[in-house]
Design a protein that fits this description.
The chain is an alpha/beta fold. It has a single domain, classed as NAD(P)-binding Rossmann-like Domain (Rossmann fold), CATH 3.40.50.720. The chain is built from eleven helices and 13 strands. The strands form four sheets. A seven-stranded parallel sheet has the order 3-2-1-4-5-6-11, sandwiched between helices. A two-stranded parallel ribbon has the order 7-10. Helix 1 crosses helix 7. The longest helix is centred in the first third of the chain and has 22 residues. The chain starts with a strand and ends in a 9-residue tail after the last helix.
Length: about 325
């Protein structure tokens, strides 16, 4: 298959493009920097280029270049505080671009996966299923939910995947696992929130699952997260133990003491039975993901990512 991945220098986009390139022809869109030595074709395009109007011209050009069978849309403004600081840009990238891309992909006959987030829920109760009514907190969550709705309206056959992920990135600064690992390795004390719960998937596992969803010809909304959930403090402790790092450097704390600018949802525990039944297999658990993270580290994977020689862009 020919696969177009947007946001291909980001945490999910790069790992997805690398995993998919083992078996498919992959085109990866990046914003302002090129990737070196990549096993996939890099396409440079600013999805919010001045003068691009509704972004349709840029997206049309990307689709023409890649001629994809499948499109996996990872590009987003995913930094929560950045969305609060620039809500107009967040809306363009998280809502308007996905809606237009969904329209163009449907018109051309390809299949689309749109990446959304577990943060569409306010996290007041947890245990969310796909049919539960979202209640987003903040600009990031609202624009991502509006993006889901724009995609579903323009392309009912699209897959909308609500995700939470961790793993190795180009910068070493894009996931919670990297935050804990690099700080603990340097002997720096960190906080771990005991009152924030999530279900993170290793990004490499997520990449394989997304491709499986396309191959299975699924459509509609799915929760694509770990089969079990954990507090962020417990996640840090588990990571420290697996890597042989000093867990006493992690201090239990409340999210209210973390100095975060934007509101965070406390209990983003999502149920995954719908996807597990569709794929006829359970989704990986958190311990499986941490084992995979450790194995990749032992194989020198973080260093291999940095050999691409750029800093992550804003896609």
């Amino acid at each position: 298959m020919r696969i177009l991945v947007t946001g291909a220098s980001g945490l999910l986009g790069l790992n997805l493009a690398l995993e998919a390139a083992k078996d498919h022809t992959v085109f990866g869109q990046v914003n302002s920097h090129s990737l070196r030595f990549s096993p996939f074709t890099v396409l440079e395009a600013d999805l919010l280029a001045p003068g691009a109007g509704d972004c349709g011209a840029t997206l049309d050009r990307l689709l023409e270049q890649a001629q994809p069978d499948w499109v996996i849309h990872c590009a987003a403004l995913a930094i929560v505080d950045a969305c609060e600081a620039d809500p107009a840009r967040a809306r363009k990238l998280n809502t308007e671009v996905p809606g237009k891309l969904a329209e163009l992909v449907a018109r051309g006959g390809a299949r689309l996966v749109h990446i959304s987030t577990d943060a569409v829920f306010d996290g007041q109760r947890g245990g969310y299923i796909e049919e539960d009514e979202p209640s987003p907190l903040g600009v990031y969550a609202r624009t991502k939910l509006d993006g889901e709705r724009a995609v579903a309206q323009a392309n009912p056959q699209a897959i909308i995947a609500r995700v939470n992920l961790h793993g190795w990135s180009l910068s070493g600064k894009r996931s919670l696992s990297e935050f804990f690992f690099y700080n603990l390795r340097a002997g720096k004390p960190v906080l771990g929130f005991t009152d924030v719960f999530f279900c993170p998937l290793l990004v490499n596992d997520l990449a394989h699952i997304l491709v499986k969803m396309l191959a299975a010809d699924l459509n509609g909304l799915y929760h694509v997260v770990s089969s079990d959930c954990i507090s962020k403090y417990e996640f840090g402790i588990a990571l420290a133990r697996r890597f042989g790092l000093e867990e006493r450097l992690i201090s239990p704390a409340s999210v209210a003491s973390g100095g975060l600018k934007a509101a965070r949802s406390p209990t983003l525990t999502l149920r995954t039975e719908k996807l597990a039944n569709a794929l006829r297999q359970p989704l990986p658990g958190i311990s499986t993901g941490l084992e995979g993270l450790y194995t990749l580290y032992q194989q020198g994977y973080p260093q291999k990512l940095r050999e691409f020689g750029i800093q992550e862009n804003r896609d």
